[in-house]
Amino acid sequence: MSDASPESYPVPWQAAAAELRERGSRFLARLHPAGDEKEARRILEATAAEHPGASHHCWAWRLGWPPRERSHDAGEPSGTAGPPILRALQGAGLSDVLLLVIRWFGGTKLGRGGLVRAYGDAARAAVGEAHVGHRLQRRRLRLRLPYAETGALERLLDPPELEVVASHYGAEVDLVLAVVLSRLPALEELVARRGLSLSSVEPSLEDEDGPE
Questions:
Q1: Which is nearest to 141 in space by CA: 205, 203, 200?
Q2: Fewest Cβ atoms closer than 10 Å to its Cβ: which of 4, 60, 132, 182?
Q3: Do 203 and 140 contact (CB within 8 A), yes or no?
Q4: What is the pTM of this model?
């Protein structure tokens, strides 16, 4: 797995899965790309509906960069399922990812240590199957400018490092720009020099590279 650079971070490019059995219990690990919490919850709901007979649906996610993290033991003893799954994601440095481990109880209790090992091993196996790409860290900014100033902006545009992602043309031009941190000083200089209006918009995550 690749480490994050100042302007990008590793993400899973597609879903991956792995399975193991431990003393009669079956553990199915499923890793899914998830761009935000809404998408992660949709996947959780769909998986629960797909496997209604499972004993436990345990999971962890990491979203954005720096990552927002959450895990859930789903009825297993506290700390024996969600945290080991989360540690598998942390060890790989992945974000924008949901990792579930679905368990079917086999009739034999594994104990706390056995659960931690089983959930962790299943999670790491799924991570090992993941195809990894990179996602740019880009800030979204709203820029309002007169029509006469659009030429100066166009000379700065250099997709995907700095590009227009939304536009509205009224009395002025109202643009939403996506910009990586290294290109922000040039944009800010243009804004200051021309006396333009620049404001923050909710951050967006954009794909940069395909699978490695």
A1: 200
A2: 182
A3: yes
A4: 0.75
CA angle 55, 61, 62 (to 5 degrees): 170
Residue 56 sits in the same domain as residue 90? yes
Answer whether 62's CB lies under 8 Å from 98's CB: no
Alpha-carbon dihedral angle through residues 29, 35, 36, 40, given to the nearest 10 degrees = -20
Amino acid letter, 31? L
- What are the structure tokens assigned to 170, written together? 């009224």
Does 12 share its domain with 105?
yes
Q: Give tens-digit pLDDT for 43-76.
A: 999 999 999 999 999 999 999 888 999 999 999 9
DSSP for the chain? Answer: -PPPBTTEEEEESS-EEEEEEETTEEEEEEEEE-SSHHHHHHHHHHHHHH-TT-SEEEEEEEETTTTEEEEE-TTSSTTSSHHHHHHHHHHHT--SEEEEEEEE--SS--HHHHHHHHHHHHHHHHHHT--EEEEEEEEEEEEEE-GGGHHHHHTT-BTTTEEEEEEEESSSEEEEEEEEGGGHHHHHHHHHHHT-EEEEEEEEEEEEE---
What token pair was written down for 21? 């059995």
Residues 62 and 108 in one domain: yes
Q: What are phi and psi of 207, to 5 degrees?
A: -75, 140
Which domain, by its residues, includes 193?
135-209
| Gyration radius (Cα) of the chain, Å | 22
